[in-house]
């Protein structure tokens, strides 16, 4: 597995960045503040337990090659281990956005549509 370290790192970073960049836009669309959007995105950017269910099913059905399945499980485990660090980064960025919004006088309005 040592030969796959570059692939694992690329998958972890790629997955985390893809999710972290897309989620704030989705949260903004439901009227969350910029800070809350960023904070939430960084908390949800890792792989989750459901990935283990899908990967075990893929292994059972032989949908993925065994080596790729093992690699993806490692990626999910590492991304889950990074959650506390990502949460910390998200909080710092969110605090910055909240401070900027407060200084510029932007109010965070939640609009719930019925």
Specify the biggest β-sheet: none
Task: Report mean pLDDT, rounded to a whole number.
Answer: 80
> SSE order, as H and E?
HHHHH
| Radius of gyration over all CA atoms, rounded | 18 Å
Number of helices: 5
Hey, roughly how much beta strand do the residues contain? under 5%
The helix-and-strand class reads mainly alpha
What is the topological layout?
Layout: H1 5-29, H2 34-43, H3 49-61, H4 66-81, H5 83-104
Description:
- There is one protein chain.
- The chain has 114 residues and is mainly α.
- It has one domain (2-102).
- The chain is 75% helix and 0% strand.
- It has 5 helices and no strands.
- It has helices spanning 5-29, 34-43, 49-61, 66-81, 83-104.
- Helix 1 (5-29) runs antiparallel to helix 2, helix 1 (5-29) crosses helix 4 and helix 3 runs antiparallel to helix 4 (66-81).
- The termini are far apart.
- The model has no long low-confidence stretch (mean pLDDT 80).
Keywords:
114 residues, mainly alpha
How would you summarize what this structure contains?
The chain has 114 residues and is mostly helical. The protein has one domain (2-102). The chain is built from 5 helices and no strands.
């Amino acid at each position: 597995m040592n030969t796959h370290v570059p692939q694992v790192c690329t998958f972890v970073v790629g997955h985390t960045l893809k999710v972290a960049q897309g989620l704030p836009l989705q949260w903004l669309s439901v009227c969350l503040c910029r800070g809350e959007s960023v904070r939430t995105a960084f908390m949800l950017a890792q792989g989750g337990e459901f990935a283990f269910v899908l990967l075990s099913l893929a292994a059972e059905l032989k949908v993925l090659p065994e080596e790729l399945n093992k690699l993806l499980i490692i990626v999910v485990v590492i991304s889950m281990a990074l959650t506390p660090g990502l949460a910390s980064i998200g909080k710092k960025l969110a605090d910055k956005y909240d401070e900027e919004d407060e200084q510029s006088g932007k109010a965070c309005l939640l609009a719930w549509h019925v």
